[in-house]
From TrEMBL:
Homodimer. Residues 54-470 form the Aminoacyl-transfer RNA synthetases class-II family profile domain. Consists of three domains: the N-terminal catalytic domain, the editing domain and the C-terminal anticodon-binding domain. Keywords: Aminoacyl-tRNA synthetase, ATP-binding, Cytoplasm, Ligase, Nucleotide-binding, Protein biosynthesis. Belongs to the class-II aminoacyl-tRNA synthetase family. ProS type 1 subfamily. This is Proline--tRNA ligase. The keyword Nucleotide-binding applies. The gene is proS. Catalyzes the attachment of proline to tRNA(Pro) in a two-step reaction: proline is first activated by ATP to form Pro-AMP and then transferred to the acceptor end of tRNA(Pro). As ProRS can inadvertently accommodate and process non-cognate amino acids such as alanine and cysteine, to avoid such errors it has two additional distinct editing activities against alanine. One activity is designated as 'pretransfer' editing and involves the tRNA(Pro)-independent hydrolysis of activated Ala-AMP. One of its GO terms (molecular function) is ATP binding. Transmembrane segments: none annotated. It catalyses: tRNA(Pro) + L-proline + ATP = L-prolyl-tRNA(Pro) + AMP + diphosphate. GO terms for cellular component: cytosol.
């Protein structure tokens, strides 16, 4: 093994904190700041201190090794990008306010790259002219930029973040499927090596586009994604990607529509209480504006509308809630009493599949203080489009086997897409085929949140004392602590030097004037896998070895400590 340098805490830029940062909401945010790994520069923008940079570099190393193993080639593209390619694909507008836009001194439009499909496509267009140049997989590890409206949770949701993005290029769909499978397997190896607990779930493509899409999610309370897992079969999906089949019923026996007076019942709760019915018997109609045009969204009264699904369906159009001014401009829309019957052509009506043809509902009559019962879908009103738009709930039937689903929170750590030819079509990426004719290239896109993986690991592995890193990505292999006296410091530095000479990465706490208690607390907080203490028996050449994760301690000689830690 190569001689590893000893990192002395007396020289390390890493001030630990006893108290949580005032703005910290999640565990990883609190601990990464307290342990001296990161510091806030501005909202959603973070600086990585030496310990944090080591952890980040270790994640990069694992990612790089596994990407190289599948034949991917590393490049580095600019973060400052011209507008034109993103205009060609429509994403200059699709990204909306999340895109950092800027102008150069000549008035030219540029952006800070949120992701690089367009630029990789143009690179391959420039470099690859024949089918003989393909297939190829290219990747980079680079900072990305998204102007989050509410950056939060420390490095979990920032405006600048480190990401690995890779792209496959092939002339045939079979090649795309193979590249997708190779990435999927590489991701499994990466996250296993990092020590992450993760799930692979079906996902939506979003602004990326394409067909097949899967997410790699790390279960954690701090996660912003909710995923559903079936306890009976292999179904797992982000709740935004769950869709139920439309199942029409026979509504021929339902009596005719009847209007009923319902004064002071503008909400589902007041309506159900007034009529003595279940909320599930009522039809909720939420009004939104899609690029300024009013759209009604129908769901059962006991369910909530998932606005994320609505936005996904109408993307890249802008979706907003209607306002008092909108109701004032449309007297035909009576606030609290809107029903799908009689809305006419002026309002598009979309509904959840649970509002299937033949189902009967109690809903608004489009008159103040009035509702209608026996309102049958397909008889009394038509649905312009069925879209699964309800918030998925615990116990909803699995779309595959019908068993009640389990829900959990998770952090998205990776996402893979079969893009197909969306970007190749927009940017006219062709190569000369075997028959001498142009062939349109098909693409895949594959991302890993490198900085996000650090936060996810902190969330999953930390305990009450602090961080607890897996060895693969820890900033050191062993944290040697000199309890305080000169003899103890001398022994600690001697052991640290011998370990480093054997290739062990060592962090040694040689700080003078710091109490043993503070040093022990900091060692727990920093979270290196092994803690070796030169304490009360240093004069005898006896040390204490502690496993940070399990808390197991034992006294060992200097020789045994070196043998154990270099094995």
């Amino acid at each position: 093994m190569a001689n590893a340098p000893v990192q002395r805490m007396s020289q390390l830029m890493a001030k630990t904190l006893r108290d949580d940062p005032a703005d910290a909401e999640v565990l990883s945010h609190k601990l990464l700041v307290r342990a001296g790994y990161v510091r806030r520069t501005a909202a959603g923008i973070w600086s990585w201190l030496p310990l944090g940079k080591k952890v980040l570099a270790n994640v990069e190393r694992v990612v790089r090794e596994e990407m190289d193993a599948i034949g991917a080639q590393e490049v580095l593209l600019p973060a400052l990008l011209p507008r034109e390619p993103y205009d060609a694909t429509g994403r200059w507008d699709e990204y909306g306010q999340e895109l950092f836009r800027l102008k150069d001194r000549k008035g030219g439009d540029y952006l800070l790259g949120p992701t690089h499909e367009e630029i990789f496509t143009l690179l391959v267009k420039d470099q690859c002219t024949s089918y003989k140049d393909l297939p190829v997989i290219l990747y980079q590890i680079q900072s990305k930029f998204r102007d989050e409206a509410r950056p939060r949770a420390g490095i979990l949701r920032g405006r600048e973040f480190l990401m690995k993005d890779s792209y496959s290029f092939d002339t045939a769909d079979e090649g795309l499927a193979e590249a997708y499978a190779r990435h999927r397997e590489a991701y499994q190896r990466i996250f296993a090596r990092l020590g992450l607990d993760y799930r692979i779930v079906a996902a939506t493509a979003g602004a990326m586009g394409g067909s097949k899409s899967e997410e790699f999610l790390a279960p954690a309370e701090a996660g912003e994604d909710t995923f559903a897992d079936c306890p009976n079969c292999d179904f797992a999906a982000n709740t935004e990607a769950i869709n139920y089949a439309l199942q029409p019923v026979d509504g021929s026996a339902v009596p005719a529509l009847e209007e009923i007076p319902t004064p002071a019942t503008p909400t589902i709760e007041t309506l159900a209480a007034s009529l003595g019915v279940q909320a599930a018997d009522t039809l909720k109609n939420l009004l939104v504006k899609v690029d300024g045009e009013i759209v009604a969204v129908g769901v059962p009264g006991d369910r909530e509308v998932d606005l994320g699904k609505v936005e996904e369906h109408f993307a890249p159009a802008t979706v907003e809630m209607v306002t008092e001014a909108d109701f004032a401009d449309r007297p035909d829309l009576v606030r609290g009493y809107v029903g799908p019957q009689g809305l006419g052509e002026k309002v598009t009506y979309i509904a959840d599949p649970r509002v299937a043809p033949g189902t009967a509902w109690i809903t608004g009559a489009n008159k103040a203080d009035t509702h209608a019962k026996n309102v049958v879908a397909g008889r009394d009103f038509e649905v312009d489009e069925y879209v699964d738009v309800v918030v998925v709930q615990e116990g909803d039937p699995c779309p595959k086997c019908g068993t009640g689903l389990k829900l959990d929170r998770a952090i998205e750590i990776g996402h893979i897409f079969q893009l197909g030819r969306k970007y190749a079509d927009a940017l006219k990426l062709d190569v000369l085929g075997q028959n001498g004719k142009p062939v349109r290239v098909t693409m895949g896109s594959y991302g890993i949140g490198v900085s996000r993986a650090v936060a996810a690991l902190a969330e999953q592995t930390a305990d009450e004392q602090g961080l607890c890193w897996p060895k693969e990505i820890a900033p050191a292999d062993v944290h040697v602590v000199a309890a305080g006296k000169a003899l103890q410091t001398e022994l600690a530095l001697d052991v640290a030097g011998k370990l480093a000479a054997a290739g062990v990465r060592v962090l040694v706490d040689d700080r003078a004037g710091v109490s043993p208690g503070v040093k022990f607390t900091d060692a727990e907080l920093i979270g290196v896998p092994q803690i070796l203490v030169a304490g009360r028996r240093s004069a005898e050449g006896v040390l204490e070895l502690k496993d940070r994760k399990t808390g197991e301690r034992e006294e060992v000689s200097v020789e045994d400590a070196i043998a154990r830690l270099t094995a």
